[in-house]
Design a protein that fits this description.
The protein has helices spanning 2-7, 18-25, 30-40, 45-57, 84-106. The chain has 108 residues and is mainly α. The protein is elongated, with a radius of gyration of 19 Å.
């Protein structure tokens, strides 16, 4: 978000959210619109990064002791996909987004 603000000559702006970026550079800026669309898409790289960040900031759950009395069922934990393929897909999408931004702004 800081890099996008700098692309719009807002060097002192330090947006912490897409909304703040929109207030800084204009809500109709193409990058703001793209980021809002990514935020709305559940399988986007933006949401994947948010899930990874949330998981990183959340303390690990306390593990219960295992005994025959408390084993009922096993379920997979819900959270960010940390598989190599998922992280590589997000990285590729971020690189493409960055390349698109650079191409748009390098004309000036």
């Amino acid at each position: 978000l800081y890099t996008l603000a700098e692309c719009y000559q807002q060097r002192k702006g330090q947006p912490q959210s897409i909304d703040q970026l929109g207030k800084l550079i204009g809500a109709d800026a193409s990058e703001v619109q793209q980021l809002l669309a990514l935020q709305a898409s559940a399988d986007s790289w933006w949401n994947h990064l948010e899930q990874l960040g949330d998981a990183q900031n959340r303390p690990p759950a306390a593990k219960k002791t295992i005994s025959n009395d408390n084993i009922i069922a096993i379920t997979a934990a819900v959270g960010a996909d940390r598989s190599l393929s998922s992280v590589q897909a997000s990285l590729s999408a971020i690189k493409q987004f960055s390349a698109d931004v650079e191409a748009r702004h390098s004309e000036w």
